[in-house]
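Changelog entry: the UDP-N-acetylmuramoyl-L-alanyl-D-glutamate--2, 6-diaminopimelate ligase record was regenerated in this release. Current contents:
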Amino acid sequence: MLLKNLLEGLDYQLVSGDVNREIGKICYDNRKVSKDDLFVCVKGFSVDGHTFAEKATENGATVVVCEDEVKVLEGVTVIKVDNTRRALAKIASNYYGNPSKKLKVIGITGTNGKTTSSYIIRDVLTKAGNKVGLIGTIANYIGDKKFKTERTTPESLELQELFKQMVDEGANYCVMEVSSHALALDRVYDVEFDYAIFTNLTRDHLDMHKTFEEYYKAKFKLFKMANNCIINIDDDYGKRIIEDLEEDKKSKNIVTISLKQDADYTAENILLGAMKSEFDTKGKKYEMEIPGLYNVYNSLGCIAVCDLLKLSYEKINAALKEATVPGRCQRVGKSHNLDFTIIVDYAHTPDGLENILSTVKQVTKGRVIAVFGCGGNRDTVKRPQMGEIATRIADIAIVTSDNPRKEEPALIIEDILKGIKDKDNCITIENRYDAIKKAIELAKSEDSVVIAGKGHEDYQILKDETIHFDDREVVEEILQNRNEV
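Regenerated structure tokens:
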């Protein structure tokens, strides 16, 4: 493709060379560069792509896009921009033919609820006869075709390529989780969002954003980009989003959801069961096989989007009834005829842990036994908070490892224990397998075991390696071994 076409819509300065030259592909990793490629110098957290510009040209790049001065081989075209991350997003969009403009893109952001909401909306749209792409934490999909995901929202180059694949395979919708990282790092810059949902905002990712204000500002970006904004106004930050969108209200459709106050969509006659929920909104009854009041919030946002898309009540409710999300309040070990319940959930934030434990507590006749930990090299402030929550709600809390990464697991556990005043109902078992086994051994008739933190993940990140570890598989193995004894 001709370079000047790739630069269309981009404010840039031509430092050297010619824009009338053909480009092979786009790269931001100099190790992937080959003949006639364009290299974008992206500044990362630990490395700066500008330092690899010369190496990229030695590998064959004939165009370098940069923010700062760079050293390159003679004859290379150098394009200077104010922000290379935004430039990468724009160039990638042009390279793949601006594919997001050929899809209806539905973005979901918030601390909790993104994955559940995305699966519900995908299921509704699919039942309505659409081919749907999904981008998120668990996996990426185009229709039934599954692709492994490395992060919740891909880097802009890979994201635009995925959009192009969706268009090529006949998808007309894309439902995507939009992380705060992606928004802060402009991975979704130049994406045309038709709809955006705000679920909630609680403590998470402050290892990157540093302050809650910065975390909020990252999330808010999505609603400046979207045409239709669906906002949970029971969250104080949802109210703030609406206030901060004041100057855009004439050009946007803002729809509110609430369980506590007047809103466009409210839930009434709420019935919360052990593994299901029912509620009415706008005079119609909805049912779902996902428990918890927080999932009523998630469902309201999905219903609002689907209503805006003119989908029928019958299709929306049918999809809600059958909605399942891997690793989100997922019941496991059902084939073993247990007289107690085992649930695996991704809850890895204070709010998420409180939600799942409170939900399970409400419907458990016996005791709640919680297994949880905290990730290493992440926000340390939430560790004692999660310790306090687990021991306050659960009858027995087993503190263990999550993904310790470069930290010592024992030191992470120490941080968690600082939030626990009464340790009488607390057990510490560093090895996660052993912790899960202990919880199952302790479980009696009508108890519930909640294994929190990793959900759908099938790995554990240790200091020097990443190993295969799936809480759901571990439960099955422990139960199988128990039955064989």
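The chain has a mean pLDDT of 93.
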